[in-house]
Write a structure and sequence with these properties.
With 362 residues, the chain is an alpha/beta fold. It contains eleven helices and twelve strands. It is globular.
Length: 362
């Protein structure tokens, strides 16, 4: 991609990974990669996981334009692309919590599959117009997950870009479908698109139903720490800012039509992550009662719980020069400190008052 001024449409930019990406794009990304970022248009529906408080620090940045809207609205997407002369799309909008997909899969199919289809259609029409006008700088980054690959056994090699898809939950099936659509739009319509698949992200602004922020809060308040099954499910942990660096690099330098896996090189059992969180919280808050280990409670496993995920990110390291900058220890320390310093952010979510910030709220 040419190093001209970037005008980027980010979908899902008020959520966890999306808001971290927007902060990164408007922060150090341009200087790190020698590009100029002229504008970031942030499109988010503001469902339960979208939070305008995640973007408070950007209020004074004229380059950030927030739009409340749905990727299912193809007309809106097309208008935004043309109105802001967008030359890059970074697509992160998704329903992403496995438990919620088991309880109610339809939202996942509509947002992750149909929504991606509508977005691709809008991008295809827009790219065709730009190409006819002599512009060749448009790029589309489709962001996916390692869960599309299914579950690994203890001795299986890590997921690579050629691992066959085998999704086991409605969430992962909806993401797998969107990945296939993305691939088809490259090969059928010539859309200049790159796909990434990532491992488990953690860091600031993560909705507190997820393991890391959930456990941090429960340790602080001396509540039971629920762990699925025997706690031996393995995930590869990736600090969210490292992921954002990989996404931007893939957008700029990834080969059209190709896929890049982004992982943290950090496989850990869930129970070991919980122990690490307890230790990290206690290190930051030594005044807390050191009884959290006794609060670990094993609960009934969720249906179809994949046993192990692991990402082989050697391709993006070898071809694009990406590598994680945080170890699990340093990333966890930064994460715990952020949540301890932002307890009011958690409180707003737990009370539901954060939803009053939606545009048009009374």
């Amino acid at each position: 991609m040419a190093n001209n001024d970037l005008r980027i449409l980010v979908t899902g930019g008020a959520g966890f990974i999306g808001s971290n990406l927007v902060h990164y794009l408007l922060g150090t990304a341009g200087a790190e990669r020698g590009v100029s970022i002229a504008k970031v248009v942030n499109l988010d529906k503001l469902t339960y996981a979208g939070n305008l408080s995640n973007l408070t620090a950007l209020k004074s940045d004229a380059r950030h334009v927030f739009v409340q809207g749905d990727i299912l609205d193809g007309a809106l997407v097309g208008r935004l692309l043309r109105e802001h002369n967008i030359n890059a799309v970074m697509h992160l909008a998704a329903e992403s919590h496995v438990d919620r997909s088991i309880d109610g899969p339809e939202d996942f199919i509509m947002t992750n599959f149909v929504g991606t289809f509508r977005l691709l259609e809008a991008a295809r029409a827009y790219h065709k117009e730009r190409s006819a006008a002599g512009h060749s700088d448009f790029r589309f980054l489709h962001v996916s997950t390692d869960e599309v690959f299914g579950s690994l056994g203890p001795a299986d090699p890590a997921f690579s870009e050629i691992t066959p898809y085998a999704p086991n939950s409605p969430y992962s099936a909806s993401k797998a479908g969107s990945d296939h659509l993305a691939r088809a739009y490259v090969h059928t319509y010539g859309l200049p698109l790159v796909t990434t698949n990532c491992s488990n992200n953690y860091g600031p602004y993560q909705f507190p139903e997820k393991l890391m922020p959930l456990m941090i809060q429960k340790v602080i308040h001396g509540e039971k720490l629920p762990v699925y099954g025997d706690g031996a499910n393995v995930r590869d942990w990736l600090y969210v800012e490292d992921h954002c660096r990989g996404l931007f690099l893939a957008l700029l330098k990834g080969e059209i039509g190709e896929t890049y896996n982004i992982g943290g090189k950090c496989e850990m059992k869930n129970i070991d992550v919980v122990h690490a969180i307890i230790a990290a919280v206690n290190a930051e808050r030594p005044e807390l009662p050191r009884t959290a280990e006794d609060l670990i409670t094993f609960v009934k496993d969720r249906p179809g719980h994949d046993r192990r995920y692991a990402i082989d990110s050697s391709r993006i390291e070898r071809e694009l020069g990406w590598a994680p900058q945080e170890t699990f220890a340093t990333g966890l320390q930064r994460t715990v400190r952020w949540y301890l310093d932002h307890e009011s952010w958690i409180a707003e979510i737990q009370s539901g008052t954060y939803q009053l910030q939606r545009l048009g709220a009374a």
